[in-house]
Amino acid sequence: MNLVLLGPPGAGKGTQGDRLAARLAVPKFATGDILRDAVRDDTPLGRDAQRYMDAGELVPDEVVLSLVREALGAPQAAKGFILDGFPRTVPQAEGLDARLVELGVKLDAVVYFDVPEEELVKRLAGRRVCPSCGAVFNVHSDPPAVAGTCGDCGGQLEVREDDREETVRNRLRVYREHTEPLLQRYEKISSLRRLAAAGSVDDVYDKMIRVVGLG
Ligand code: AMP
What we know:
- The chain has one domain (2-116, 163-211): P-loop containing nucleotide triphosphate hydrolases (Rossmann fold, 3-Layer(aba) Sandwich).
- The protein is 49% helix and 13% strand.
- The protein contains 9 helices and 7 strands, in the order βαβαααβαβαββααβα.
- Bound molecules: adenosine monophosphate.
- Residues 9, 31-32, 35, 52-53, 56-59, 64, 85-86, 88, 92, 162, 171 line the site of adenosine monophosphate (AMP).
C-alpha cells in the first residue's frame, strides 16, 4: 500500500504512521525525522535546514523533494510506503506525482488527520522526545513511566526546539497557508480520507485502519 499522511503538526501522523508501517511491513518516510537526523549529524543538509526548522518555517521544496525522490527509489519502498509530513506544499505534491509516474506506482490513499487547533497546541506543548533513540512521549496522553526519562532506552527526554509555543504558532500558520490547500487537491482526485483524529491513540488507530480499508 502507498499512503500519504497529511495534517497539521501534532495531529499524530508520526505515532500512527509508525504503527501502520509495522502492520503493513512497509517503510515510513518522515521528512521531519530525516531532516532532524541530518541536523543532529551536522551534515551539509542539516546545516542548511536547521534555521528553517528552528523558526518553524518550511525547508525549501527542492531540498525535501530530492530526499523523497531518493527514498521512494530505495528497494524497501518497492512493496509500499507511508509518507509522513510530505508533501507540504503544492510544488511538493506535483513533484511527488511526477516521481510516482516515473516509478509506475499510484497512491492508494491520502489520510487527513483532522484535529482542532487548541488540541494541537496542547499536544505539542506536552510532547517530549528522546534525543538518543527518537522515542516520542506526551506528558498528558502518553507519559513515560519515570518522568523525564525515556521508557525505551533510559535517555533524558527533551522538548523539541520547534515545539516551543511561539514556534508552534508559526508552524500552524505555515500549515494553514501552504499545506491546507493540498486537501482540496487530493479531494479532487478522490484519494482523500478524512480522519477525526482528536481521540486516544488506540481509537484513532482503529479508525485509521478502517479508512484505509484494512479493518
Ligand atoms: P515535522 O517533524 O514533520 O513537524 O517537521 C519538522 C520541521 O521540518 C518542519 O517544521 C519543517 O521545518 C521541516 N520539514 C519537514 N517536512 C517538510 C516538508 N515536507 N517540507 C518542508 N519542510 C519540512
